[in-house]
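Summary for the funding panel

The consortium committed to producing paired sequence-structure records for every protein in the target list. Below we show the first two records in order, beginning with the earlier of the two.
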Amino acid sequence: MASILDPPILTKVAKMKERVCWQHPALVERHIDQTRLIIDDGRSDDAEFSFLVIGDSGSGPHTDHHPQRRIAEQMVPHLQDCRFLLHTGDVVYQVGSSEQYPENFIQPYREWLVGGDRTDQIAFDEMLFRFPFLAVPGNHDYYNLPRLYSALVQVSRPIRQLLGLNLNPNVGWRGSGVGDAYARAFLDYLKGMPADQMAAHLDRHYGPWDDQTQGLRYQPGQFTRLPNRYYTFRYGGVDFFALDSSTFNDPTLVSENTSDSAQQRRLVAQRETIQRQQQQIRDEALHLQSTDPHAQERLDDLQAKVEQLDEMLLDIDKQTHPNATALVDTEQLLWLRNALIDSWQDPSARGRILFFHHPPYVTEVTKWAQGQTMAIRQNLRWVLDQVAEAVPEIGTHRAPVNLVLNGHAHCFEYLKTEDTGHADSHMNCVVCGGSGLSLRRQRPEGTMLYEALETDADGQTAFKLVAKSQLYTGLTGHKAERRRPYSFVRIDVTGDESPQFVLTPYISERFHQGWQEYALDPLVLG
């Protein structure tokens, strides 16, 4: 039985448009661009500023420790001189349910919230941030929960406890409602607003973006909603582009009736291997001794592994399901293309940063070769190639964006792309997905990522180096010697026409049931 359901891309897009009343006549009449966000803190013109980045955080507490809260506490001192926080997606696990927000978001990030000293009185859809918390949706924020699976998990929980079956799926009774919980928590949710209140709401919370359009005003402590599932804002002359990558991550369907048949067989064999691994994990959980001081952490690892394998099965199903069709949110990708071109043609813009959930490049063991990773890479290239073609200043040795920030892979990683043959060459890629959920290892194949080129007449395939991992921080060691370095990143932006970005990863490391906190050496990126 499937434990999670990923809705079709067209359904995600349609539902999210309904929730923000996309292109409602009252919005069109006011020339409101529902992708524009204005950080209205009185300091957005400062050339030098700092911000924080986290991702894949919303796990809630483990039985005897709380990595997500540990990272939040380590970030609190930075709130004094950082301007905002970017979240790269997967805000709450396992299925983005509203019932999981109190424990998996509101309590851990209480210092960010107005009234955070009384978390039990904050509704998930009425959160007001005193410190800007700028999110994008991840795949888990969209997942639905099969009703039968949910019922079995809840009904069997007392029986599992009685029998000592301690694997505890991190699900409740409900799923995300195709991202509805995320939308109610973070977006300017206009659906259902009485008609006689719409005009006053728009006049109160939207203001001039430029001479022609209006954007949504984000006012810390007063009104802290985002305009859409993807959006842009400018701070310190740097243009930020927040994307919803869960609507352009569908991998190409592998056909059973073409030369892809070998790939089809490989995926089927991989599915069988994963299913055997899941059974082995359940068997190991049955035999763990409660007297073992490391038993609970091992159970946490095993449950995380089961969930990780579920995601891998979902990725395989996307490639092999006979009724699947690879779809792309072309509207969003065209918006990004046009927005990047506009940014390059604006002399007051001095840099560009993308942040979204699924990384185009990563060496984490479960994500580096996934079909979804390849889909994200190809769709991003499609956009950036068009931007480079339209903007002569970019040239062949300059990426169209300064930074790409992602999550999804549960680690911290900095990669630099090589000459890929596309406009994503020489690009700085940062993965920040180790901020609370279980961590994962780097792939044993190493730090270099290659792509297959053409296959010659003898069946020999040539490969091209496309990226190198410069720094990776994730799970290491085995059993009682496991090290779990959870992380967040601080980015300091310098104040010149060609800004530098100084990235400092901060670590809260769990080892031998204790914690150690430290910072890694800063990375200076031009």
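The next record, for a separate protein in the list, is shown here:
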Amino acid sequence: MSTPTQESPAAAAAHPERAGRITTADARLYGPGRSTAPETMTGSQAIVRSLEELGVTDVFGIPGGAILPTYDPLMDSPVINHILVRHEQGAGHAAQGYAMATGKVGVCFATSGPGATNLVTPLADAHMDSVPMVAITGQVNASVIGTDAFQEADIVGIATPITKHTFLVTDADEIPQVMAEAFHIASSGRPGPVLVDITKSAQAATTTFSWPPRLGLAGYKPVTRGHAKQIREAARMIAAAHRPVFYIGGGIIKAEAHQEFRELAETAGAPVVNTLMARGAFPDSHPLNVGMPGMHGSVSAVAALQQADLLITLGARFDDRVTGQLDTFAPEAKVIHADIDPAEISKNRYADVPIVGSLEAIIPELTAALREVTASTGAPDYSPWWTRLNRLRETYPLGWTEPEDGKIAPQKVIQRIGEASGPEAVYAAGVGQHQMWAAQFIGYERPRQWLNSGGLGTMGYAVPAAMGAAVGNPDRTVWAIDGDGCFQMTNQELATCAINKIPIKVAVINNSSLGMVRQWQTLFYESRYSNTHLNTAVSPSGEQVVRIPDFVALAEAYGCAGLRCEREEDIDSVIAQALEINDRPVVIDFVVSRDSMVWPMVPAGVSNSDIQVARNLTPDFDEED
């Protein structure tokens, strides 16, 4: 690692808060890690050079007036591959998918005004799901900010509540430092999106560039090591518990701590539930895995949390979709809560043992402490607890009821995609019924195999996120599991995929409806289907209609292969045909039953103990073992 360059005395005097230097621990942020001699260039060139020094190889974006100065030197970069998307929202979700599939910081570009505001949804999505992402937007000239200039929008003000941090750059001399700080903030501590808004005048101005810059983040010091006393207390509580459960969230994946966690889980021998954001953090095939908890979780996972006497919560945030009615959640359990973000500790559920720090550091220490405790006390006997949970696993396995209308069961389609493609593939889901079925019926064996919009629940996420994942993992098969409603929100990015030879595979689970909304209308609104029919496969009365749109024709118009499957006996052959096509994207229109529902289900606002495995059928958690 090279020595950081010195700031000029004048710059140091003007900015005494920038005393911090980049340390060896930050070296992973800086690509080749080289020092560069001072060099005169424009602010735009400094942006591109900063990205190169930060190790960025792929960006997603659309040029426009206020970011145009930066697109000129970008064209000359020997390192950075720019992917021209068809909508800024696609750029943002692609950056998310890239980050989630690779663990690197995703990067997107947009111009000022509507270009920047079109990034609002991906920024909010990344914020909710702790995705490391840097969005670089152009802004109008500094001299006209506040005058309602053409395509001016206060994107910093708009984005501040939905990002980890925002920067407004009006001085070209600040660009290298701000870029380095943005990447550091996005990727350290609890990851998240950072917005860098750079005025057109700063992009055009002349500056002196050198690398690496100083970091001016004196107040930003994420805690990484957990408190040793708290870790020892947690180990004692685990050893003393009778019905412990590991409740793990997406923080396990963000911390790259899945191997360390597996060792801890196997040392303890306690059941594991992994949230929607943690699918793949612990293998589905592992005998300790009792499933996904929450509104559409498995009975065994929901029961494990409800009946536990100890929750060992690692990188999860007690989201309402997991807890149900909060004051009835896990009523007998004490809580160990470890998280990188101190704001999450005791936010929704009081933590009896709070541990703040990186799970990558905490988990091995907890494993060692647990071994030390059990060496003197003996291993705890969880066999009665496992007897209860195994009975629930056997009695209430995940499954589905065959549709009465003779159409394909959507669950079977998704299960067969997973079986045919395997755990080395990547699966990005939209939001709704197909998202839950993809979480339930595909086996996840490794982290970064499953991508979805968990916290914000953004329709239209799947196609651009799959595109980003495929750019980051060009040797993997990447599926977008989408609904016919979600698909129509961002399918223009198929053009981006076709032109750039990004061969994603899109499974459109086409029930001609906004499926999850229709399910709620069936269950809670007396089957009054107000504005949920989409006319993509069948008419409201059930007969065939002109498809609006015809997804096969649409795919072909975008330069993709278009396939359709309407019979159960054709599912495997159509999937096999899609897997053989790797020179362009593939879209499969799976025409499925619109009456299929996602079960199990905990209705909103009720206790998880009232989980239903079918309409009006609630399992008995307390049946004698």
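Regarding this second record: The longest strand covers residues 36-42. The first helix runs from residue 9 to 14.
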